[in-house]
């Protein structure tokens, strides 16, 4: 299910380049971390158009900033 969410968000313009090898949000193979970044990128870029952050139960909204090290999550579209 996570891979479907990643594929969908990337196909709709999420900033997936940040999660490729060498990118700040690569995650060293941690698919949960990669999915979190990509789902957030999708949501932040499309929330004003009515997008949700559910991805069939894979994602959820949080008030806790998941940014870590050089991997910075965008925030603010609500």
UniProtKB/TrEMBL annotation:
Keyword Signal among record annotations: yes
Domain X8: 1-73
Example of a GO cellular component annotation carried by this entry: plasmodesma
InterPro entries recorded: X8 (IPR012946), X8_dom_prot (IPR044788)
Keywords: Signal
Top-level taxonomic group: Eukaryota
Record's keyword annotation contains Chaperone: no
Coiled-coil stretches noted in the UniProt entry, renumbered to this chain: none
PANTHER family registered for this protein in UniProt: BETA-1,3 GLUCANASE, OS05G0512600 PROTEIN
Name of the protein described by the UniProt record: X8 domain-containing protein
């Amino acid at each position: 299910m996570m891979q479907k969410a990643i594929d969908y968000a990337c196909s709709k313009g999420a900033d997936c380049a940040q999660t490729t090898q060498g990118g700040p949000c690569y995650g060293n193979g941690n698919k949960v971390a990669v999915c979190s970044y990509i789902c957030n990128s999708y949501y932040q870029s499309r929330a004003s158009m009515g997008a949700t952050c559910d991805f069939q139960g894979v994602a959820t909204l949080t008030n806790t900033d998941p940014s870590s090290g050089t991997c910075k999550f965008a925030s603010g579209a609500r």
